[in-house]
Design a protein that fits this description.
The structure is a single chain. It is built from one helix and three strands, in the order E-E-E-H. By secondary structure, it is α+β, with helices and mostly antiparallel strands. The chain has a single domain, classed as Double Stranded RNA Binding Domain.
Length: 74
């Protein structure tokens, strides 16, 4: 079975990226490049799901979406 989870990439001030998975609380990773961060979070998601299954817990269905909201700056 395949699932697609929304991830949030944030550029760090000191360099690199941090990435979190809103639908999987506590599932986070990082990387020096965006590509590395995405590869690392894919691995983190897989481990997170394996852990849930090993504990007999349900795997959350993806439900988070991302939207951009434009505002006028003062």
């Amino acid at each position: 079975m395949s699932r697609s989870y929304t991830v949030v990439l944030e550029r760090e001030e000191v360099g690199g990226f941090s990435v979190s998975v809103p639908d999987l609380p506590g599932c986070v990773s990082q990387g020096e490049t965006e590509a590395e961060a995405l590869a690392n979070v894919r691995e983190a998601i897989e481990g997170y799901i394996e852990g849930l299954k090993a504990d007999g817990l349900p795997v959350p269905e993806p439900h988070t979406t991302i939207a951009t909201v434009e505002v006028k700056a003062a």
